[in-house]
């Protein structure tokens, strides 16, 4: 289980990239999606979403629920990702320096 400070740090990490923030928000709203639909809902090119999902996966914020699929992979927020999402509104408006200090 992550501490509150670790969750705050992960939320700050998400907010430092508009792509990460949008992907987390879309996954929270729709529960699970393919990278193509995440990209469409975020108004971001697919190659950027692939990189973003890889970053979020590396931080245990998202998980691919059908990793073996070559097409149609589905991503969703982890329990940690949901906790991070709930903290995002309280951190919006902070400067990058303030986010880095978390």
- The count of strands amounts to 3
Measured as a percent range, the helix fraction is 55-70%
Largest sheet: 3 strands, antiparallel
Distance between the termini: 18 Å
Q: Quick one: CATH superfamily?
A: Winged helix-like DNA-binding domain superfamily/Winged helix DNA-binding domain
Order of helices and strands: HHEHHEEHH
Put simply, the count of helices is 6
Low-confidence stretches: none
CATH architecture descriptor text: Orthogonal Bundle
The SS-based structural class is mainly alpha
Number of domains: 1
What sort of overall outline do the alpha carbons produce when their principal axes are compared? globular
How big is the Rg?
A: 13 Å
Question: How much strand content do the residues show?
Answer: 5-15%
Mean pLDDT score: 91
Walk me through what this model shows.
There is one protein chain. The chain is mainly alpha-helical. It has a single domain, classed as Winged helix-like DNA-binding domain superfamily/Winged helix DNA-binding domain (Arc Repressor Mutant, subunit A, Orthogonal Bundle). It contains 6 helices and 3 strands, in the order H-H-E-H-H-E-E-H-H. Helix 2 packs across helix 3. The longest helix has 13 residues. The model has no long low-confidence stretch (mean pLDDT 91).
């Amino acid at each position: 289980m992550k501490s509150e400070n670790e969750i705050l740090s992960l939320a700050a990490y998400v907010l430092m990239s508009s792509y990460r923030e949008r992907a987390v928000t879309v996954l929270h709203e729709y529960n699970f999606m393919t990278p193509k639909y995440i990209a469409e809902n975020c108004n971001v090119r697919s190659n950027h979403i692939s990189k973003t999902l890889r970053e979020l996966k590396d931080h245990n914020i998202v998980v691919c629920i059908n990793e073996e699929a070559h097409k149609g992979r589905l991503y969703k927020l982890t329990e940690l990702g949901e906790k991070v999402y709930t903290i995002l509104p309280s951190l919006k408006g902070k400067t990058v320096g303030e986010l880095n200090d978390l």
